[in-house]
């Protein structure tokens, strides 16, 4: 093993999950599941990353069983016999390689436009029917809608456990439904599902509690969240550590085991006056393990325009990452695009055989390999 990468190759434990190393495959939507059912190509894609030494795979976002959960073509669902049978093949293949895998449970909320599977007529659903702040263009969720979606997340978690997944991740990031409740820009509700941090986190907290009720005490539950929204990259749910504490407290109390803190550049300090990044602050304030993410192993990084453009990412050196991991700033490291380019990224880093790793290019998204 490479001496320098040692911090990445220490075991990790949360509830009944034991990982050989700290490398997590970041959830990445690929849209290669026609009929919304994971197929042999999807099985092979994940099997290869497990064989390549990733400690934990988090799957692409997979839609829970609610009519408005999906927003894009060819997304794998996590309800219905066929989709669950497809996922079981993925799980079994990953386990056969000694890997661990969790699905990312997803509802796109108001991002949905009519015309998408499974029922083209169904409009987007949002906490206040807002597509963008001030723009009302979709269905405003009723109390019943909210209860239905919470139940759909809980059912998806129960089914995930039944088919052998090692835990679940709730997608609470990037401006999708759970995040639409977090964000005052799209959540103008005056009932218990809106208002202050306690109100705006209630939907996520109830999802976490409902999942826990289904899966019992031993099954790990991750919550992924982000400050930025695809609707507006400049948004911050929490502008300072005190606000961050108020945001995180109800979620921690609800039983989140691991916070997955989504940023596009892991080395950036979250607040002035400290080097800690978002995962660092989240760990410090909650005492829970955290996952960091954002341009690990890349020479280029997301700019403010997201995937549209890239910038020089030299500060993102592996040394910087390892030092932070070693210090305990965060516990796990998610890797996205570098793992699309190099399925064996983890093994190559472990063997210090990283001289000719393939650079990521957007062209690679055109096929699932
Ligand atoms: C993503 N990302 C993402 N995030 C998420 O929570 N659910 C998802 O389904 C997706 N889908 C997705 C698709 C593709 C093609 C990319 C490149 C990214 C974001 C991803 O998990 C990760 O946070 C970012 O890619 C940053 O990590 P890297 O790629 O810089 O290591």
UniProtKB/TrEMBL annotation:
Superkingdom assignment: Bacteria
InterPro entries: Aldolase_TIM (IPR013785), OxRdtase_FMN_N (IPR001155), Oye-like (IPR045247)
Coiled coil feature spans: none
Domain named NADH:flavin oxidoreductase/NADH oxidase N-terminal: residues: 8-351
Pfam families assigned to the protein according to its UniProt record, in alphabetical order: Oxidored_FMN
Protein name: NADH:flavin oxidoreductase
Organism name: Kordiimonas lipolytica
């Amino acid at each position: 093993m490479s001496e320098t990468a040692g911090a990445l190759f220490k075991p990790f434990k949360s509830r009944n999950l034991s990982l050989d190393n700290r490398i997590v495959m970041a959830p990445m939507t690929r849209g290669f599941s026609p009929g919304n059912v994971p197929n042999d190509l999807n099985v092979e894609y994940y099997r290869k990353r497990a064989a390549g030494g990733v400690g934990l795979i988090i799957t692409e976002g997979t839609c829970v069983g609610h009519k408005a959960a999906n927003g894009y073509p060819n997304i794998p669902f996590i309800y219905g016999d066929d989709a669950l049978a497809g996922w079981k093949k993925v799980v079994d293949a990953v386990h056969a390689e000694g890997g661990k895998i969790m699905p990312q449970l997803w509802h796109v909320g108001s991002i949905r436009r009519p015309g998408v599977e499974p029922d083209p007529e169904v409009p987007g659903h949002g906490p206040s029917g807002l597509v963008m702040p001030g723009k009302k263009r979709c269905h405003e969720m009723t109390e019943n809608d909210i209860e239905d979606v919470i139940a759909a997340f809980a059912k998806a978690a129960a089914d995930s456990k039944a088919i052998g997944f090692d835990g679940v991740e709730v997608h609470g990031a990037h401006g999708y439904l759970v995040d639409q409740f977090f964000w005052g820009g799209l959540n103008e509700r005056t009932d218990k599902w809106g208002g202050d941090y306690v109100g705006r986190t209630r939907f996520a907290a109830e999802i976490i509690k409902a999942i826990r009720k289904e899966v019992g005490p031993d099954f790990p539950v991750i919550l992924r969240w982000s400050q930025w929204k695809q609707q507006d990259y400049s948004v911050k749910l929490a502008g300072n550590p005190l606000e961050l504490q108020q945001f995180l407290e109800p979620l921690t109390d609800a039983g989140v085991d691991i916070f997955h803190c989504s940023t596009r550049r892991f080395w950036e300090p979250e607040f002035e006056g400290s080097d800690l990044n978002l995962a660092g602050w989240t760990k410090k304030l909650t005492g829970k393990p955290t996952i960091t993410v954002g341009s690990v192993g890349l020479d280029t990084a997301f700019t403010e325009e997201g995937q549209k453009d890239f910038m020089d990412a030299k500060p993102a050196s592996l040394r910087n990452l390892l030092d932070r991991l070693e210090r305990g700033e965060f516990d796990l490291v998610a890797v996205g695009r570098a793992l699309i380019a190099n399925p064996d990224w983890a093994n190559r880093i472990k063997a210090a055989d990283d001289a000719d790793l393939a650079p990521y290019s957007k062209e690679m998204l055109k096929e699932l390999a």
